[in-house]
Design a protein that fits this description.
The N and C termini lie far apart (39 Å). It contains 6 helices and 9 strands; from the N terminus they run βββαββαβαααβαββ.
Length: 208
């Protein structure tokens, strides 16, 4: 399976964020988006996720256009933005169940997701009492709730300690090795030896 964009342009009002950008990511691959603040990493991820539309260009899978079948595209991906979007008065476990129900997807194993992100001992705790790092791990744990091919991650290492980053790298690598793909916006040096890199600054106007 291949997911790709052709001659993508993103413009917000009078601001041209990037133009004529091409990317591709295939099953088993990780694509790392880099670039200075304002170069459009988050904007590109939102376009990839179908949350925003490019001003120009095409977004496609090898079996069809995203624009023609947006619902099929949505079911193939999981997007974790830079905001955790957790419900503070729900417990850790209840947040995962809520996210799964919101997507209308079959829940796999909430407990397993909590174990892999080292949150199982906090399952019944209201999320308002979590640290920033624990909150980030909870947001990332939703990746393991549903069987999706494409993971889109915006600055996933924010607030994580070194051990948690290593654990996340292992989880992403396993996802790709078992038939998935990942696109990650980060300027942190995550350890994916075979990852492709895309520097968005090359496609953006000069940032003054």
């Amino acid at each position: 399976m291949k997911f790709f964009g052709t001659k993508l342009t993103c413009q917000k009002g009078e601001k041209l964020v990037f133009e004529n950008l091409n990317f591709s990511v295939e099953t088993g691959n990780t694509l790392v988006l880099t670039g200075k603040n304002g170069s459009g990493k988050t904007s590109l991820l939102r376009i990839m996720a179908g949350l925003a539309s490019p001003s120009k260009g095409l977004l496609s899978w090898n079996d069809g256009s995203v624009k023609q079948e947006p619902e099929r595209h949505k079911m193939r991906l999981n997007f974790v933005g830079h905001l955790n979007a957790i419900k503070p008065f729900l417990s850790v476990q209840e947040n995962l169940i809520f996210w799964a129900q919101t997507r209308g997807m079959q829940i796999t194993d909430v407990h397993s997701a909590l174990v892999k992100f080292e949150l199982h001992h906090l399952a019944s705790i209201p999320t308002q009492y979590l640290s920033s790092g624990q909150s980030r791990k909870l947001a990332l744990a939703r990746l393991l709730l549903y069987n999706t091919s494409l993971w889109l991650l915006d600055e996933p290492t924010v607030a994580l300690d070194q051990q948690s980053i290593l654990n996340l790298e292992k989880i992403i690598s396993l996802h790709c090795k078992t038939g998935g793909m990942a696109v990650i916006a980060t300027n942190f040096d995550m350890k994916f030896p075979d990852a492709k890199k895309l520097n968005l600054h090359k496609f953006a106007p000069l940032i003054k």
